[in-house]
Design brief:
Layout (H helix, E strand, L loop, with lengths): L1 E15 L6 E3 L3 E3 L2 E4 L5 E8 L1 E7 L5 E7 L2 E7 L15 E7 L5 E12 L10 E4 L14 E14 L9 E6 L4 E4 L8 E2 L5 E6 L2 E3 L13 E10 L6 E12 L2 E10 L4 E7 L2 E3 L6 E4 L4 E3 L7 E3 L7 E5 L6 E8 L1 H4 L17 E4 L6 E11 L5 E12 L3 H5 L1
Antiparallel strand pairs: 1-12, 2-5, 3-4, 4-11, 5-10, 6-9, 6-12, 7-8, 7-10, 13-14, 13-21, 15-18, 16-17, 16-18, 18-19, 19-20, 20-30, 21-29, 22-29, 23-24, 23-26, 25-28, 26-27, 27-30, 28-29
């Protein structure tokens, strides 16, 4: 994520998340993205500076009612019961939002949300006052902060997601005949595991730490993760590929070095490595190592197959954040991009090997398809990649 201060005379829309220190009476519990109050009289206090405030929450059949007041004045009751809404009005995953107030004076306000029990029109025996929030495990397409407010003429701190949570290092679709699965897992089907021989090691500044214990916030210069894993059939448990993965993290980015050995005859319908997954709200243009420029401001899920000859390095620049950039680099490109093989996309020179998917307003994905219907037993595939980021004054003007 990029975190920075923005000052503008124009109205800025800002999102913010629920925290436990907002609870001034009663208690709020839950897990993952959805938290709730059950004790009548539970109160949340949220201070904001702006002219408008909106509240987001899960709505289901257990939902009760929040009473909303601003600066001591009652505004409205907000039901979190799904019976009070049409499913078509959901933001996604059953999440609703209610605008509590508009046209407020553009100054600091105090919002109080008080849980008052069940919705009388949609009664339930155990009503919950639902709250939606964003957590580290939130799916990008369902990441909804608790509060949205509009502020004018103020300096605000804005967190802008730069790379969505989409596979970046590699993704191989394996056809088992009766089913197709991805390595590593997609859709919660585990396919890359330790097995009996696998290992995982974590080094912080060259000192080894247990990967199974939660660490407190730890400053570092370099983090390394070494993994020896096995691709495993999800039902039979047969190991069909061996993976050795080295990951190095510094203040400048992340480097991956991966070695795969196919242990069984395995049909790989599609295989991708070093995928550049950018948020078009952060990056507006991707420039190849040939200085060819591609916009990220198309959102129709179309594919643009790059006609450069194996463009192995990319930089993303922004009209919104003029001094910021992102980098994706295919190290050792001849091996990484499987240029010596024909069972990949593109011609012999790599034209058409990379495609830029204009998926939607949140995700643009540039990736090479390095496997198409591959079956060779014993083949070793070694690939390397680097994902970097940085700040350089006028980088957008320099390259665009």
């Amino acid at each position: 994520n990029y975190i920075g201060k923005i000052t503008s005379s124009d109205a800025q829309t800002v999102t913010d998340n629920f925290t436990q220190n907002m609870v001034i009476s009663g208690s709020v519990t839950g897990s993952s993205d959805n938290w709730y109050a059950t004790e009548i009289g539970t109160k949340l206090q949220y201070n904001f500076t702006g002219s408008s405030i909106t509240f987001r929450y899960l709505a289901d059949t257990r939902g009760g009612v929040w009473k909303a007041s601003i600066d001591g004045n009652f505004i409205k009751n907000i039901s979190t019961n799904s019976g009070a809404y049409s499913s078509s009005s959901s933001l996604g995953a059953g999440v609703m939002e209610t605008n509590i107030a508009n046209n407020l004076d553009n100054k600091e306000h105090i919002l109080i949300l008080e849980f008052i029990g069940q919705d009388e029109e949609h009664p339930t025996s155990t009503p919950r006052g639902w709250i939606r929030m964003v957590t580290p495990t939130s799916k990008p397409e369902y990441s909804f902060d608790t509060f949205v407010y509009v502020v004018k003429g103020a300096t605000v701190t804005k967190t802008q997601n730069a790379l969505w949570d989409s596979n970046k290092e590699f993704a191989f679709q394996v056809d088992f005949g009766d089913r197709k699965e991805w390595v590593p897992e997609h859709n919660s089907t585990g396919t890359l595991k330790l097995g009996d021989k696998g290992t995982q090691q974590l080094f912080i500044n060259n000192e080894e730490y247990s990967i199974n214990q939660v660490l407190s916030d730890t400053s570092f210069t370099e983090v390394k993760m070494l993994q020896h894993l096995f691709a495993t059939h999800p039902t039979t448990g047969v190991e069909f590929a061996e993976f050795i993965i080295t990951t190095t993290i510094t203040s400048r980015g992340v480097k991956f070095n991966t070695k795969v050995k196919w242990l069984k005859e395995t049909t790989i319908g599609s295989g991708y490595v070093n995928m550049f997954t950018v948020n078009p709200k952060f990056i507006t243009e991707i420039i190849t190592s040939y200085n060819t420029k591609y916009t990220t401001q198309i959102f129709d899920n179309s594919y643009n197959y790059l006609q450069d000859e194996a463009p192995y390095s990319y930089i993303g620049v922004s009209n919104f954040y003029n001094n910021m950039y992102l980098i994706c680099h295919n190290s050792n490109p001849y091996e990484t991009l499987r240029m010596g093989y024909s069972d990949r996309d593109g011609d012999e020179y790599g034209k058409g090997l990379f495609a830029l998917q204009h998926r939607n307003e949140d995700l643009q994905k540039l990736y090479p398809r390095t496997y198409t219907n591959h079956k060779t037993v014993g083949e070793i595939y070694q690939f390397e990649g680097y994902f970097g980021f940085g700040k350089l004054p006028m980088i957008n003007k320099l390259l665009s």
